[in-house]
Give the backbone structure.
Amino acid sequence: MHARMVQTTLVSCLLFAVAVVAGQEPGVRAEGDSPVFAGAKTGTVPPKGPKCLEGEQSLPGRHAFVVQDALKFCKPAKGFWIDLGAGKGQVAIPLIEATGNAVVMIDPNAEAMTEGLQIARDKGMADRLAAVVGVAEAMPLPDNSVDFLVSRGSIFFWKDPAKGLKEVHRVLRPGGKAYIGGGAGSGYPRWAVEELIRLRKENLEGDEAERGKRFVALRRPEQMKAWAIAAGLPSFTVMGKGAISADDPRVGQGVWLMFEKKADE
């Protein structure tokens, strides 16, 4: 069986299982070759961050650098991979490009994921990207089913981050790994990191001060550790020093939580 056919079959089988767990009919609504499941109702749009985020859009893309770090630190096994809080697939698509492994996006915003599916079709990888509407706190996935889960920029908008992390631990199989947080990636150009941090510091004063300070506070390593402890994670690693620091030699700017589910968990 050709590799392309194997990937298509893998995604179809994985999504069939997701539909059954979510209580859906096992039919697929396909646009082109890309399967989409309505595993849950579309959620509300997350609150907007500070205005500095608009200025950051002019900086180089960060997702490919994040993918490089995720693969370097987690060394995930091939299999069932999830991009949680996927948006338009900004992490999922570079993951596929870097490894060839199929990825399933989960996000409450069906419209954003539809855009991602179109991007994947345009890139000729429609058979390796799929989408499930859902939220971190109630993923429509079986226990012990996920080999690798990555989530960039999403946890800070989860309704209950500790519950979401507990749910991530539930769906990971023994040996499965998670990489969750936010940041630019260790390989991100230094000049762009400095500009990113400058923009964020500007928003700690003036009209945007309240939102800017909350944005930074949620992205502290102490906050990430507190969520992990509240979730009851048996073991985990927090890397990075937050939204306005680039001092961490491993991941540069940002903060990341990494953990692996052990066989006895």
Notes: Residues 65 and 188 are 6 Å apart (CA to CA). The radius of gyration is 18 Å. Confidence is low (pLDDT under 50) at residues 1-10, 15-48.
